[in-house]
């Protein structure tokens, strides 16, 4: 999966969970402050990413701040799983 | 009568297959036309009954953001809309948030969410719940949603007494008002259990009508040819408050809640006892609570589910309490179907509307009164005198609740 595909998938999932317009889900958008994500949203994001790439550690998304942070975490995950 | 607190109904809101506005519901009740239709929202193959009374035009956009809606099961969405309408109808209650309360009733809770989570992973030995599963399926989700949305800071709780839940919620609200715990309570019920599994489950316990060839004729309470109830969804809420307070703030008072009767059959998990003993005790308890004699009741909104056993037992109980054919009886379920935990609240609203409009709505599909039922079941709209009306609700488990509303 290419970096661009990962980026697209993460943005789509974020927009769908957070119920915001996809145009707002930019790499530097802050999940909590800009997109009004709360702990349940991050839990949902965790589950949909697991559905895509397999089980992640419980704290995998514990310190993500921006959409870009999630993308970076997803890229690491994909690299681990395929590398 | 003691000098206990008097309770006013100052707001009402509904979401039913027969309408989402009070006027729309009332007109539908007067029409006597059943809202039962073939189910198109899922495949009914093999279920045995392929029709229900559903709400086809639920639009929550004026009430909930997309994200709020995504975090609520359909049952909560229905209830939130009805409760918001009831509170809007009541106007500014001018009571501190700490003195406001909410009581909700539901027989099932978040059935669609629960069922989807399980079916989504059929064969794995467990479901596939999302992180929102628990807050969406819990039976108190609606009470929480209403409390959060309207910032109600007093007690918020849910009751579950199957098909009597909505009526028990109203009775609990009366208790909170009478004992001084709250000054305003929004109370009611909601249900959204028209799902493949719940349909099949009710069918297998032989509760549902199987009149698949003519769904609109299937819900026929007290009719000789009834063969079970028609499953429905819906919600209804009432705003209850101290009568003097309501009058002082110039609120529109629909009625006074003067009596609540509660009883248990202590007999069988689904079947009523012979002669409807529990139902009769419940109605008598409500009359005693209201300080009324049976001859003072102008109209009984029966539980009237349309199952052979319920209607017979209820008719025997009504006959025992009031005398044979002594009071006009109607069942709203002929038109709305049976919305389980919402039914008692929907019918409380129907009874209050009847009291205000001074008319008893007809019982849909009553062609031939069951000769075993010695009650005066209303088949055509009938004018009635201004006076107290009674609404009965009886649930699986033998939980009974009767409410009495009177003109102010």
From TrEMBL, chain A:
UniProtKB keywords: Fatty acid biosynthesis, Fatty acid metabolism, Lipid biosynthesis, Lipid metabolism, Phosphopantetheine, Phosphoprotein
Domain Carrier span(s) in chain numbering: 4-78
InterPro entries per record: ACP, ACP-like_sf, PP-bd_ACP
GO cellular component: cytosol; membrane
Entry's Gene Ontology molecular function annotations: acyl binding; acyl carrier activity
Superkingdom of the organism of origin: Bacteria
Pfam families: PP-binding
Protein's GO biological process: lipid A biosynthetic process
Keyword Phosphoprotein annotated: yes
Name of the molecule in the record: Acyl carrier protein
UniProt source species: Nonomuraea fuscirosea
Automatic annotation (TrEMBL), chain B:
SUPFAM superfamilies: Thiolase-like
Pathway annotation from the record: Lipid metabolism; fatty acid biosynthesis
GO BP terms: fatty acid elongation
Pfam families associated with the record: ketoacyl-synt, Ketoacyl-synt_C
Reaction(s) the record says it catalyses: a fatty acyl-[ACP] + malonyl-[ACP] + H(+) = a 3-oxoacyl-[ACP] + holo-[ACP] + CO2; (9Z)-hexadecenoyl-[ACP] + malonyl-[ACP] + H(+) = 3-oxo-(11Z)-octadecenoyl-[ACP] + holo-[ACP] + CO2
UniProt-recorded Gene Ontology molecular function terms: 3-oxoacyl-[acyl-carrier-protein] synthase activity
Membrane-spanning residues: none
Keywords: Acyltransferase, Fatty acid biosynthesis, Fatty acid metabolism, Lipid biosynthesis, Lipid metabolism, Transferase
EC code(s) of this entry: 2.3.1.179
Annotated active site: 163 (for beta-ketoacyl synthase activity)
Keyword flag Transmembrane: no
Function: Involved in the type II fatty acid elongation cycle. Catalyzes the elongation of a wide range of acyl-ACP by the addition of two carbons from malonyl-ACP to an acyl acceptor. Can efficiently catalyze the conversion of palmitoleoyl-ACP (cis-hexadec-9-enoyl-ACP) to cis-vaccenoyl-ACP (cis-octadec-11-enoyl-ACP), an essential step in the thermal regulation of fatty acid composition.
Protein name: 3-oxoacyl-[acyl-carrier-protein] synthase 2
């Amino acid at each position: 999966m290419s970096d661009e595909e990962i980026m697209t998938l993460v943005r789509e999932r974020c927009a769908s969970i957070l119920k915001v317009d996809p145009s707002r889900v930019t790499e530097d958008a802050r999940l909590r402050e800009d997109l009004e994500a709360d702990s349940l949203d991050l839990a949902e994001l965790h589950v949909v990413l697991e559905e895509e790439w397999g089980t992640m550690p419980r704290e995998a998304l514990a310190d993500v701040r921006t959409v870009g942070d999630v993308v970076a975490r997803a890229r690491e995950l994909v690299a681990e799983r395929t590398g | 009568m003691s000098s206990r607190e008097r309770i006013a109904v100052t707001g009402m809101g509904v979401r039913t297959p027969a309408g989402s506005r009070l006027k729309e519901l009332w007109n539908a009740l007067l029409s006597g036309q059943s809202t039962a239709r073939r189910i198109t929202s899922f495949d009914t193959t093999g279920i045995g009954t392929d029709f229900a009374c559903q709400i086809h035009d639920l639009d929550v956009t004026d009430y909930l953001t997309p994200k709020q809606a995504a975090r609520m099961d359909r049952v909560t969405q229905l209830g939130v809309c009805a409760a918001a309408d009831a509170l809007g109808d009541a106007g500014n209650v001018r009571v501190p948030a700490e003195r406001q309360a909410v009581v909700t009733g539901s027989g099932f809770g978040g059935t669609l969410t629960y069922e989807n989570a399980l079916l989504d992973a059929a064969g794995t030995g467990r479901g596939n719940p999302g992180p929102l599963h628990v807050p969406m399926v819990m039976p108190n989700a609606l009470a929480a949603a209403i409390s959060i949305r309207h910032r109600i800071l007093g007690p918020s709780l849910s009751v579950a007494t199957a098909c009597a839940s909505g009526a028990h919620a109203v009775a609990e609200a009366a208790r909170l008002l009478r004992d001084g715990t709250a000054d305003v309570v929004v109370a009611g019920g909601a249900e959204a259990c028209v799902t493949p599994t719940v349909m099949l489950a009710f069918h297998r316990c032989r509760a549902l009508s199987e009149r698949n060839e003519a769904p609109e004729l299937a819900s026929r309470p007290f009719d000789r040819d009834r063969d079970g109830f028609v499953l429905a969804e819906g919600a209804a809420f009432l705003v209850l408050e101290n009568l003097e307070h309501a009058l002082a703030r110039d609120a529109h008072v629909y009625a006074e809640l003067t009596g609540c009767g509660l009883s248990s059959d202590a007999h069988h998990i689904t079947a009523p006892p012979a002669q409807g003993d529990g139902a009769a005790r419940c109605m008598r308890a409500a009359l005693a609570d209201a300080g009324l004699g049976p001859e003072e009741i102008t109209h009984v909104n029966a539980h009237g589910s349309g199952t052979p056993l319920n209607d017979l037992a209820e008719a025997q109980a009504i006959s025992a309490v009031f005398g044979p054919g002594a009071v006009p009886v109607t069942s709203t379920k002929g038109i709305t179907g049976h919305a389980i935990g919402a039914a008692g609240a929907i019918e409380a609203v129907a009874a209050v509307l009847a009291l205000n409009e001074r008319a008893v709505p007809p019982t849909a599909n009553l062609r031939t009164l069951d000769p075993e039922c010695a009650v005066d079941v209303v088949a055509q709209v009938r004018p009635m005198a201004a006076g107290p009306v009674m609404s009965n609700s009886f649930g699986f488990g033998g939980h009974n609740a009767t409410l009495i509303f009177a003109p102010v």
